[in-house]
Structures are given as structure tokens and as C-alpha cells.
Predict the 3D structure of the following.
Amino acid sequence: MTRAAVTLLLVTSLAFVIAQEQQQQCLAGFPSTCPSFAPCSNGTLGVCPTDFTIVGPSLEPVHESSKPPTGLALDNAKNLFLTYPRNTGATPNNVVLCTSFTGEEPWPSAAFQNCTQGQDPSTCFINVQNVVLDSQNVMWAVDSGIPLGSESATPGGAKVMAFNLSADNALIRTYPIPEPLLHDGANANDVRINNTQGTGGFAFITDESKYGSLIAIDLDTGDAVRRLFNTSVVMADDKYVGSYDGQQTYSWNGTTKRFTTTGSDGIALQSGNVYWGVLASRRYYYVPQSVLTNFSASDEEVLDAVVFPGQLGSEQAGFTADDKGTLYMTASEQNAIYYVDTVQSEVCEEVNGTPPDGEGLVDPNNYVVKTLIRNGLIQHADSAAILDGYLYFNTNQLERSPTFQYNNTDNRRGPFRSYRVYIGAGPAV
């Protein structure tokens, strides 16, 4: 071996050792400073913000969880709420209030956290997926009612619950999803509230089962309707394969490969419409709220009213909206958060011959999805909320969880952080 070859071998070996040491440092936790050489760039667990090309401002961490959260909400006092669903394992607390950067306490109390045998399921949590604040200082929790290990909801367990934040978090009312609507494994996943629809407001819920659907509940009467069931606009792409941190994503049952079939998932209310995304796809849609609240409309009429603006360029989970007409979508495949303007006055460039600014809503053919922020720290942003000019979101590394890993190993590595980023807007009204 020549001297040059020996020198090259030594340099290569030294570089490999340094890279291995830096990678171990990266995987050990959140360092105060990140190495100039980014050894985690092809396999990051969200340790260093420079693991990917950064788009947008820096992220401000607001909470650190030892377990992966799914739902997120804020109240008007800037208190942060998180949910820990029981989809893949038991959790002692289903909904928590964050009391410090790492501190949490059961919310609204410990008594709600786990329904016991024989207990009225309308008074306790079975499997809360998300929480959301409405315009009247009421916190809403959506509970799939599906216990760990089951594929269908406990009778009376699928519901939305309203808590009065102005009266010591008292339970105002529980709205059970009627049993006839829960056929074929309906899985209530996310909820948004419009207090101005109808006489008492409406709740809009996504069903993430493989058949998908949207559920609307009249908050005055408690009546409900399930729409778009088993239609393409709420169902996964056929044989869908996603990508996460550069690796293809399948669903696994041990060593048996399956394709992910998660249907309608994220939801937001914006510009008079209900927007939703289909998780196992790169598609999103909207339909006028007035169509979903019209219980006398036929299923065909509802489907005909659905608008498909186009694919958004990523698998997505959470949706939220601001008071300027902007819709935000968490883009898990791209470690990013996307947005699209739905109000013409917020559009800043000409699109398809339509000049910037102007009045009215943006033509769906002119929707242009853009990147708000992209960062190696964004490891499957799941739920998001807006308050006082900031967009808050949590992260949970969903695609590294047992469902999506060969032989059902759990490759998630905490802690799991929630962040905020400044957007200069308030929550959608």
C-alpha cells in the first residue's frame, strides 16, 4: 500500500470516528450547540435545527414531553394543553395542562382521565385525540371512544365534551356521536367548533378510519350527521407509501407489510369552509360549512359541493387557520409547516392572470401552497393552534412509532418538544 493510500485510509478512518462520536452526541439529547458538521442529516431525530435546509425563522421551544403527544390547544391565558391518546399504548393521563417546561398535571382533573368499568362514558375520557378552544372560552375534547386494543368505540364513548374555562373547567355538556353513525370503525380524530352556525353552533369532526368521513353535530339539539363516508375525498390513496426522514413508510404487523389506510385527519375552519386533509395521501379538500350543517341535503349533494384545490406536496396531519384567511398544514414528510392563502387580499403575487391583493376569496385554481417553516426539529408536527401572533405545534415522530416500523419496534426517541413560531396573526374567527 502506498504512503498516499495509507494517509487516505487514516484520514477516512478518523473522519468516520469523528462522525460516529458526533452522531452519538446528537442522539444523546438536545445539545446547547450543534456541531458544524451535521452527522444526523440523513437520520435525524430532531436534535439539531440545521439537520435540514432551514426555511423561515427559528423555533422557540415551549414544552418538553417525555411521551409523544398528539393533540394541542391553548387558552386565552397562554396555558398549553396536550393530549396523550391510547392508540398504541396506555397513558396515565389522557389530557394534561402544562405547568412548566417539563411539568404537567391531569386536566381538568385526575377523575376524568380513565373511564372505569361501569362508569358513564359521557363523564370521563377513553381515548381523547385532540382538544380545541372555541370563541367563547370553552375547551372541547374529541374522544374516539376506542379503547386500546379495540377497533370500535365503546357504546357512548365516542363524543365531544365541552368544558367551561371561566367556571373552574366545569363540564358543560357531552355530545355523544350517535351509535348509528359509528359503523365500520368510525374513529373520531379531530374537531373544530363554529359557535355562529345554527342556533347553538356546530362541531365538525374528522373520522380517520380507512373509510373516512366528516361528522357534523348540532350543538343546540345534539343531532348529528355523517357525510362523505367511503368516498375518495376522505380515503387514503390506494397502496399509499409515504416518506419520513428519507425512509419509505409502510404499516407493519410484525413482518407482514401493509399499506397505511388512515383517512380524513386534520381539520380547520376558514373563510366559511371546512378544510381537511387525508393523512395517507398528499391531498386536501374543502366544503362550505353551510353544506355540512344542512342535514336535509343528500349525500350526493354534499359530495358534489366538495372542492379539491390540488395536492399540497406532503403527507399531513394537523390543520389550523388564522384571522387573515390563511390555512396552515403540518407537512410531516418535509419536516415543515405549509400554508395557503384563501383570501385574495393576502395574496402578494399574480397567479393565473389574477393580480395580487384584491377582494373576495381566492379561486381554488389559484391556490399556491407555500412553506412557512422547514426545520430538522420538526419531527412530525401533529396538532397546531394560534394565539397572540404565534403558531404553536407539537411533535411526536409518529412515523417512527411501532405501527410504521418493521417488526413493530418503537424507534421514537424523546424528549418530544412543542414549539412556537411567530406569524403575526390571531386564531380564525
